[in-house]
Automatic annotation (TrEMBL):
InterPro entries: AhpC/TSA, Thioredoxin-like_sf, Thioredoxin_CS, Thioredoxin_domain, Thioredoxin_ResA/DsbE_sf. Residues 1-121 form the Thioredoxin domain. One of its GO terms (cellular component) is cell envelope. Keywords: Cytochrome c-type biogenesis, Disulfide bond, Redox-active center. This is TlpA family protein disulfide reductase. It is found in: Cell envelope. It comes from Flavobacterium hydrophilum. One of its GO terms (biological process) is cytochrome complex assembly.
């Protein structure tokens, strides 16, 4: 899985973990945005900071996360999180269709509004 595969689409890179309460609380909102806007060009990549594959996979199923999920199961040593400078989760990075980070850590209505703005361009 390469982020380059997402170029040309508005993409949310969502850093989360099964053990993160605030992450799990935000997941239903992200699921709703994905269901509404995926067909209009939204892509999401979930990056987990989990350590245990079973807990991670169970959370994906329970929260209905139907987009691409990746994890090296390295907790805070997750290389992708280090690349993005993630120091706390949930952390979201919104990339425009050229792959440029245009916003981060938006939640709920603010996240949806930003995605709609980017998709309208």
């Amino acid at each position: 899985m390469s982020l380059k595969e997402s170029l040309g689409k508005v993409t949310i890179v969502d850093f989360w973990a099964s053990w993160c309460g605030p992450c799990r609380k935000e997941n239903p909102n992200v699921v709703a945005i994905y269901k509404e806007l995926h067909s209009k060009g939204l892509n999401i990549i979930g990056v987990s900071l989990d350590k245990e594959a079973s807990a991670w996979k169970e959370a994906i199923a329970k929260d209905n996360l139907s987009w691409t999920q990746v994890s090296n199961l390295k907790f805070w040593d997750e290389p992708i999180a280090k690349q993005y400078g993630v120091e706390s989760i949930p952390a979201t990075f919104i990339l425009d269709s050229s792959g440029k980070i245009v916003a981060q850590d938006l939640r709920g209505p603010e996240l949806r509004a930003k995605i709609l703005e980017l998709l309208a361009k």
